[in-house]
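S1.2 Input.
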Amino acid sequence: MAKLHRIISGVLRLAAAAAAGAAAIIMVTSRETTSFFGIEMEAKYSYTPSFVFFVVAFAVACAYSLLVLFVRPGSTASRLVLMTDVIVGMLLTGAVAATGAISEVGKNGNTHAGWLPICGQIQAYCNHVMGALIAGFIALVVYFLIIMYSLHVVAEPLCSCH
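S1.3 Output.
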């Protein structure tokens, strides 16, 4: 049974690493230059702090997911894994929320603040950011599954209902 738990956890962590790595890479490669009323405008992820936070958070999650694969069950480090999984899950939640909020303003603007939507002028950039958000949300869901599965594995010996 322990081997099955290890395999399921490994598959989930590889899926989380792949989705988190994809999200970071897609965001890093989002860039577009366009001309708007005769002014050349460049859009890059590094111009928006929440997008930089997104890249850093998902790169950390990817690296962490791969490193945890090498932690032996029952070791001292394995006791910290569940707590660190929760912290990484919260980090990813914040990154997706911040990036989603900025993306919403970019797509629809904010009439109350007088901010105009920009996605009509830089559609490829906005589509790239949307792809990164989708990959990021998938990574977040996989992290949720990792946390739920880890809680199940930890709580299983405590439950006398089997």
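S1.4 Remarks. The helical segments are 2-28, 49-68, 78-108, 123-155.
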